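Quick one, T. Sequence first:
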Amino acid sequence: MSDATATPALRPHTSLFTRLRIVEAELEALKALVAGLKEDHEALREDRDEWRWRAEYLLAESRKGFLDRWGQRIAEVATPFARRLNALL
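Structure tokens:
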């Protein structure tokens, strides 16, 4: 027997309003899920930027070396003293 002549199976019909409310509830759930994913994505992006900054800072510090950092600090302190001493001579 073909499908066209078969008797249709009886299905409980839900009202259009009920189906609309179900779809709206699912839509709100999906919106909440997307909002949560956006928050997680932004947090991951901030963590990535923080780790990148730390890595760049550590690389810059390792390139300078220990003596170079102290040399800069000594130069900052000694420069005014050297200028005063030079002015006296």
